[in-house]
Amino acid sequence: MTAQVGAELLAGLREVLGPGGVLTDPADTAPYATDWRRLYQGRTAAVLRPANTREVAFCVASCAASGVAIVPQGGNTSMVGGAVPSEDGRQVVLSLSRMRRVRAIDPVDMTMEAEAGLTLKEAQDAADAAGAKLPLSISSEGTATIGGVLATNAGGNNTVRYGNARDMVLGLEVVLADGQVINALRRLHKDNTGYCLRQLFVGSEGTLGIITAAVLKLRPRLAEVELALCAVPDEASALTLFSRVRGQDAGALQAFEYMSATGMDFVLRHIPGAVLPLAAPAPHYALVELGSPRAGAGLRAALESVLAEALEAGEITDAVIAESGAQRAAIWKLREEHAEAQKREGASVKNDVSVPVSRVPELIVRASAACRALIPGARPVAFGHMGDGNIHMNLQQPPDMDPTAFLARGHEVMEAVNEVVRDLDGSFSAEHGVGRLKPDMLAEWRGGAELDVMRRIKAALDPAGLLNPGKVLPPG
């Protein structure tokens, strides 16, 4: 049991953080105490808003001395309740929202040093202004922050080419559970000097330390981009199309996204301005994006050629290539608004799973059938990153079912999907993390020595269990 948040602790924090650095009015703290999906509604006695790393360290050390638990929070866009405090009011939220500077950009090293509260979109724009590209891209990039995307090892649309968030990190600055600061903001691409500590904190969801800044790898800015939306007859054809595009030029393939007819229908129904640029609706869709830093790379001709081959082979039935930046954005909108469209359609259970790329079609078919059998009338909504094996295998409530009753069966739905995923040698969490929603799954999927090592690491770095308690690791 953690300690209550006392008046003496808050007074000491106000003295250092200033009047806007500590929020205690329930009207001010409420937005920090619930998650984007409205799965969890917590309470907090205070939201701490440090403005620099020194203040973060002071907050952590002060709370540690008082036995008060801390929930680190970035943009609060977690899909698994990873940044929500508990209901008992004994945990304070530490928001990094005031730490949003780009400290440095080096166009020769191709690196950016950015603070944790900077949004991913702001970081992308800063890289672009410097003639470079930060390739990490996710639907919530306008709100999600650098600290959050690193703490959760975010994936996103460009993983097939650039990897996950951890693949873009060269150095980190981290505040430990006792207030010590690891300053490892190195710009080195090669540095074999002991354990790679930065990778310990990336993906740890704030349970081992609080990321305050990072050195990120940049890439050359793209000079040529081509995007196509394809109508696909079935799941297997989508995978065959992916293999065909990758085989033509793997270095140019930037994104390959899959969408079902159900998900697309929700987007067209609920998202203002969404328009299908194809002659007719299709049972399945694939979004293909190519990119090159070299002007005159001939991507348009290459994309037209590969799509013509796919059309002749029956892998696609129709396709449209974006003719402008505006049309490219409109096509991407059809993919990016899937989560929001589902929210407007009603209640949904979300499954962020991964399997080997070769088994994605089987995952979609089998998991959809399992969900329909479990809850007749429910509507599977499969979409996501086919190019790296990560599919969001979601399930929408039946139109005539009470949303609360549907959500009450959420763990049954997740287990039905996970049974298929397990059989296909996959993972129950691909890019959203474990958070508060899925710790109970960890023992079954990562038990034995693997879970034991995780517990040892947690005990070594946070022996009092004050950093984001109740997240990631199962109790006991």
Structure description:
One of its GO terms (molecular function) is catalytic activity. Its cofactor is FAD. InterPro entries: FAD-bd_oxidored_4_C, FAD-bd_PCMH, FAD-bd_PCMH-like_sf, FAD-bd_PCMH_sub1, FAD-bd_PCMH_sub2, FAD-linked_Oxase-like_C, FAD-oxidored/transferase_4, Oxid_FAD_bind_N. Residues 40-221 form the FAD-binding PCMH-type domain. This protein has helices at 7-17, 26-29, 53-66, 120-129, 146-151, 159-162, 198-201, 235-248, 261-270, 299-313, 325-336, 338-345, 360-374, 403-407, 410-423, 439-446, 449-461; strands at 22-23, 47-48, 69-73, 91-95, 102-106, 111-115, 132-133, 169-175, 181-184, 210-217, 219-220, 224-232, 253-260, 284-292, 318-321, 348-349, 352-354, 379-385, 390-396. With 476 residues, it is α+β, with helices and mostly antiparallel strands. The strands form four sheets. Strands 12, 13, 14, 15, 16, 17, 18 and 19 form an eight-stranded antiparallel beta sheet that branches. The protein has a five-stranded antiparallel beta sheet with strand order 5-6-10-8-9. The mean pLDDT is 96.
